[in-house]
Amino acid sequence: MDGEYAFPISEDTFIHFRLNKGMEIDGPLLQAIGEYETGAEAYNKALNFLTGQLRTQDEVAQKLLKLEFDEEVVAQVLAKLAKLNLLNDAEYAKSYVRTMMHTGDKGPRYIINHLRQKGVYENDIQTGLDLFTEEEQISLATTVGQKIQKRLSNVSIKQQQMKIRQNLMNKGFNGQSIDVALQEIDFEVDEEAEYEKLLKLGERLIRKYGSLPDYSKKAKIKQALFTKGFEMNLIEKFISENEI
């Protein structure tokens, strides 16, 4: 401009504005060129950010804002990417839900919270969740529950059920899916095995409360065993056999 260097111009900008060497560039045209260059730079930054990984509109927007592009430029880039279907929050939600269904251990509440944190709107979240049918939720909850059960072999059946329910709730499954999953999991009661578990805990409780008067010791042990989910007939058997 006026024979002085102003800023670098890309080949795309030359073509877009039909520029040529020696062409006179006035103030308004210079401003338009600058804005076009800024938009092109922001667009290329967004493309790089999208390479190899799905992103939400909010993620791309936050990335560009962090790079100090103004909101108007960011909005234009998002619109262009969406028009080219390079940015689609509904597809992002569906992809995330499919991944969680096949490789994850989380329920719908967890998925909803995750997508909200990514800035996905409710209608797009629902589009993804439509893939996660009630049948699929129950199937996954059952599989996850069975894995948890294997880690709880040393506790009572009731305690297993309580811990599995709580764990599944923490993972975002709803109550109805959990109820059905617990019915699907094999909790066959082996009274002999249950009593073996009770014995191990009961012996520790005898040592713990051994210094208490007999009545208090008996009450404490019974309460502790009952809280752990053991049946009262097994508790009474233990109390009787150990003359507590």
UniProtKB/TrEMBL annotation:
Ranges for domain RecX third three-helical: 192-239
Domain RecX first three-helical: 42-81
GO cellular component: cytoplasm
Subcellular location, record wording: Cytoplasm
InterPro entries (UniProt xref): RecX_HTH_1st, RecX_HTH_2nd, RecX_HTH_3rd, Regulatory_RecX, WH-like_DNA-bd_sf
Pfam families in the record: RecX_HTH1 (PF21982), RecX_HTH2 (PF02631), RecX_HTH3 (PF21981)
Swiss-Prot/TrEMBL keywords: Cytoplasm
Gene Ontology process terms (BP): regulation of DNA repair
Domain RecX second three-helical positions: 88-129
Keyword Cytoplasm: yes
Family the entry assigns: Belongs to the RecX family.
Function: Modulates RecA activity.
PANTHER family listed in its UniProt record: REGULATORY PROTEIN RECX FAMILY PROTEIN
Protein name per its UniProtKB record: Regulatory protein RecX
